[in-house]
Amino acid sequence: MARTVSERADILPLLGEVFREHGFEGASLAHITARTGLGKGSLYHFFPGGKEEMAAAVLAEIDLWFETNVFAPLRTEEDGAAAIRDMLARTDAYFRSGRRVCLVGVFALGEVRDRFSQAVQSYFARWREALAAALIRAGHPAAAAGEEAEDAVLAIQGALVLARALDDAAVFTRTLARLDRRLLQGFGGTLDPH
């Protein structure tokens, strides 16, 4: 049964889940139409560039969410420790406490990495840079902040992979709790991830 979709944006979350489940190459038109409820004509009406345009639009939506909810607050929140706590909480919510894979990470590891390299590189670089800025404002030495930020992003992404591989979302929750302690030690407590 076809859905009534009035906005292209209405389709993006559905497409994102198809790409998360099947990767870019495995996301067939059959998978996409089944998930969205839209026929081929409707899909191409919203995305004349086909599957590549769909993937680019999904990546742009993810990027906008992270820029608005994670990166910008890390860069601009005066209280660096509060910004880091907020990042951990929002990251936990976005990735559904380790039950949702990172689509940008999926694309970074897949055959389409080069096709979407600018979006992938920008996402991870901005996260690392914004977190480093917040760490400095939270009192971490500037010389170590970049490395600490890189380790934190690595831990988050690795925890998502390990949680998926072990079918144990608690891996992600434990990792965020350890990051909270490591990054915010001495800054007023720890994050309760639930």
Automatic annotation (TrEMBL):
Q: Where is the signal peptide?
A: none
Pfam families with a match to the protein in the record: TetR_C_13_2, TetR_N
Gene3D superfamilies reported in the protein's UniProt record: Tetracycline Repressor, domain 2
Cross-referenced SUPFAM superfamilies: Homeodomain-like (SSF46689), Tetracyclin repressor-like, C-terminal domain (SSF48498)
Keywords annotated in UniProt: DNA-binding, Transcription, Transcription regulation
Per the database entry, where does the chain bind DNA? Answer: 28-47
Is DNA-binding set as a keyword in this record? yes
Residue ranges constituting the HTH tetR-type domain according to the UniProt record? 5-65
Keyword check for Iron, yes or no: no
Q: What is this protein called?
A: TetR/AcrR family transcriptional regulator
Organism phylogeny: Bacteria, Pseudomonadati, Pseudomonadota, Alphaproteobacteria, Hyphomicrobiales
